[in-house]
Design brief:
There is one protein chain. The protein is of the alpha/beta class. The protein folds into two domains: 74 residues, no CATH class; 265 residues, Vaccinia Virus protein VP39 (Rossmann fold, 3-Layer(aba) Sandwich). It contains twelve helices and 13 strands. It has a seven-stranded mixed sheet, sandwiched between helices. A four-stranded antiparallel sheet has the order 1-2-3-4. Strand 12 and strand 13 form a beta hairpin.
Length: 357
């Protein structure tokens, strides 16, 4: 965590905010380990005497989470997993844990997104895709000019778009995600300019890849663990938000759109991408934007529904531009990829008392 980002973004306690108990700015209470301008281990605290929540900083990632116990106990492997094992030992642990184990799930997620985000810089570019950077480039062209000022990249995963967003806006960026193993990888890239991850070959066979990646905007970027459904930011304080391929992972997509409208400054910009790949494990059908109720006027078309939601009186957002189909590819293993076509949208936040005509 960079202290400059903490001061500039001034996060508030997500637990107090959820309870409606005021907006308390989180304070840095202790630094246990620090290197090259990054707090690697430390403690943040809510100053509200009725709350006093502690938010640890682990491996450079502050965990600004209301449900801190659930998140740490549920992701302890992602938090403690080591990257220094000899490949033979790492593969033996993988074989013993087997397919479907937590170890396997963590490695698969790292593989999917690290290849997509950073694989194009692999000196052995076997299947590196860089798909998220291509999607980002189309998004940043959608509604120029991008505002300067503070920006967040929601659902940042292993971090590539957070660096692209920093280049596009010229301002400070925080990449936010709930997945601690992916955030640790993003933090490693930020601090070292190198990526090290298990790339899935087939089954539970993975090859460890370790190579340099260019991060010229590193000074502008930080990574925090936050829940997109409980953002620790004051209303109206942010200028730009990217939410790429996140909304169909959330329990309440409509609330997500509303919260974007709230935390953006008037005329602040949000860039959204989604393939509407709804899964009941993430979102119950009542929450889906399209993909059901095909008897209706829009025949269950998510593109039409999303357009109707991006109106000032509905979400506080006004649709500015869109591209209904842009490619976004995720590699599963060496013989399988999924090619999605994401809906790309740019929307501006409206002042609460003055909806645009
Ligand atoms: C489908 S991936 C997309 C990752 C990246 N934006 C991209 O397009 O490559 C969804 C990401 O959202 C994160 N995520 C899911 N639920 C979240 C939540 N409630 N708050 C923050 N991040 C979340 C996941 O951990 C994952 O990294
Ligand atoms: Zn609090």
């Amino acid at each position: 965590m960079r202290i400059g980002h903490l001061e500039a973004f001034g996060p508030v306690c997500p637990a107090c905010r959820l309870r409606g108990d005021g907006e308390q700015s989180i304070v840095l209470e202790a630094i246990y380990a620090e290197r090259d301008g990054h707090v690697l281990q430390g403690m943040l605290r809510c100053p509200n005497l009725a709350c006093q929540r502690e938010f640890p900083i682990l491996d450079g990632i502050p965990l600004l989470l209301a449900q801190i116990r659930d998140q740490i106990s549920g992701q302890v492997l992602g938090l403690m997993m080591r990257e220094d094992l000899h490949p033979d030992l790492e593969s033996l642990v993988g074989d013993c844990c087997g397919p479907g184990s937590e170890f396997d799930t963590v490695r698969r997620h790292l593989s999917h997104y690290a290849v997509d985000h950073w694989g194009e810089y692999d000196p052995d570019p076997w299947e590196g895709s860089g798909a998220i950077a291509r999607l980002g480039a189309l998004a940043y062209d959608l509604a120029p000019p991008l505002p300067g000022g503070l920006a967040i990249d929601l659902g940042c995963s292993v971090g590539r778009n957070s660096f692209e967003l920093a280049a596009a806006t010229g301002g400070l960026v925080v990449g936010l995600d709930l997945n601690l193993s992916m955030l640790r990888l993003a933090g490693q890239v930020l601090r070292s300019g190198r990526v090290s991850y298990p790339r899935r070959r087939v089954g539970v066979a993975f090859d460890r890849r370790d190579h340099a990646v260019p991060v010229p905007q590193a000074e502008q970027v930080d990574f925090w663990a936050c829940d997109a459904a409980a953002l620790p930011f004051r209303d109206g304080g942010l200028q730009t938000i990217t939410s790429f391929n996140l909304i169909d992972c959330l329990p309440d997509p409509f609330a997500h759109l509303q919260s974007l409208g709230r935390v953006l400054a008037p005329e602040g910009l949000t860039l959204l991408a989604t393939p509407y790949d709804w899964a009941p494990s993430a979102t119950t059908i009542q929450g889906w934007i399209g993909g059901h109720s095909q008897r209706g006027e829009d025949r269950g078309d998510p593109v039409e529904r999303m357009r109707r939601l991006l109106q000032p009186e509905v979400t506080g957002l006004r649709l500015q531009a869109e591209r209904p189909r842009v490619p976004w590819e995720v590699r599963s293993y060496s013989r399988s990829r999924t090619l999605y076509e994401a809906h790309l949208l740019a929307a501006r936040a409206c002042a609460p008392d003055a909806p645009a005509p």
